[in-house]
Design a protein that fits this description.
It comes from Paenibacillus aestuarii. With 366 residues, the chain is mostly beta strands. Helix content is 0%, strand content 47%.
Length: 366
């Protein structure tokens, strides 16, 4: 039995990131993408957030400078703000939710940075609030911690922590590689071992693999159920989706064995592991990012979104959507998966240069 999805195109806007959260505190989740938010529960009414700059980047194409739309109450006023980042302006930013006053959102700089490919979020210190991890291929790996007051509310300020001084490379993920109960940071050229205190370090770098133009995120998962954490990696700017099997020799030496999942799709930039069919097992959701670069292999191929039943490493592929960009959808640089309809199944919000799409999960059908 496959999972059935009902597709709806919400907008033709070309933004490549999205999020789901309650923007106006009415108890109903809304969809945010780029310059707009879409009011739930039907997501028809569109509200302006702010202008988002468009950038012509030579041969690699036209972009809008918004590479994340993550919800975080930065200033502690009870309304969710947005964390975003700029590749072209080299800046980590947040947008202030105006709350009941309404109107456009002010955009404030957190800090200048190296070019931000996109951003991921993880509560690395167990404080209850996720830290901000930009993927900056040409810069060091850092994260930013929201500074909260004595009541646990955001103050609008952040603490920067540098965990790797060398260039990060294209790719970022979170996984407990060595099974010590601490989440490590995975980069394209190796992994950073989390110390006892992630805020103080030092983080030890283990250059054990080379993952290419790796997806963001790189996923950690025990694919073959042998008790070791493996890696699932898309090629963000080429063809290919793979998993890397972790192997431990008798002398304790670690090695990684590369296995193909799918070689027919290019620009697997964003991946997620979720239980789409409520069977208690995680599925891999992935898709083609439309025009990640105009110069990537497979740029002109049709777009699509897929899910894979992992099945101990066999990775059985199912198609959610496929076709010409605009009629069909890829999954941009940051899709969002959440139950929006209340039927108990996870839905998929898919942004991209081809438009913003919602795939309502109707469950398994014969």
């Amino acid at each position: 039995m496959s999972i059935v999805f009902k597709k709806r195109k919400l907008d033709d806007t070309p933004y490549e990131a999205c999020a789901v959260f309650d923007v106006n505190n009415d108890g109903i989740p809304d969809i945010v993408s780029g310059a707009y938010w879409y009011e739930g529960p039907d997501y028809v009414k569109r509200h302006k957030i702010c202008d988002v700059a468009g950038v012509e980047a030579g041969k690699v194409g036209y972009y809008h400078d918004d590479f994340s739309d993550y919800p975080l109450d930065v200033d502690g006023d009870g309304y969710m703000d947005i964390i975003t980042g700029s590749y072209f302006a080299d800046t980590l930013r947040w947008r202030r939710n105006p709350g009941p006053a309404g109107g456009e959102w002010a955009t404030l700089d957190i800090e200048a940075s190296a070019n931000i490919e996109t951003i991921r979020y993880f509560d690395i210190d167990g404080c209850g609030t996720p830290e901000i991890f930009p993927n900056t291929p040409g810069g060091p790996q850092v994260f930013y911690k929201l500074i909260c007051d004595q009541h646990g509310k955001g103050t609008g300020k952040f603490q920067k922590v540098v965990i790797h001084e060398e260039k990060s490379g294209h790719g970022l993920g979170f996984a407990d590689i060595n099974g010590d109960g601490r989440t490590d940071i995975v980069l394209t050229g190796g992994w950073l071992e989390q110390p006892e205190d992630p805020m103080k370090g030092p983080w030890t770098f283990h250059p054990e693999f080379s993952l290419g133009s790796a997806s963001i995120p790189i996923l950690g998962y025990d694919v073959n159920e042998d008790g070791l954490c493996d890696l699932i990696v898309g090629q963000a700017h080429d063809y290919g989706l793979h998993w890397y099997e972790q192997a431990i020799a008798q002398d304790g030496t670690r090695s990684w064995i590369k296995h193909d999942i799918d070689l027919t799709v290019s620009q697997y930039h964003d991946l997620q592991l979720v239980d789409l069919d409520n069977d208690g097992e995680l599925e891999l959701v992935a898709g083609k990012r439309y025009r990640a670069h105009n110069t990537d292999p497979g740029t002109e191929d049709p777009v699509g979104i897929y899910y894979f039943k992992i099945k101990n490493g066999t990775f059985e592929k199912y198609t959610i959507d496929y076709g010409a960009a605009g009629e069909a959808s890829g999954n941009g640089i940051y899709m969002w998966i959440e139950d929006l309809t209340g039927n108990g199944y996870l839905d998929i919000v898919a942004p991209g240069k081809e438009g913003l799409f919602l795939f309502e999960n109707l469950g398994k059908k014969e």
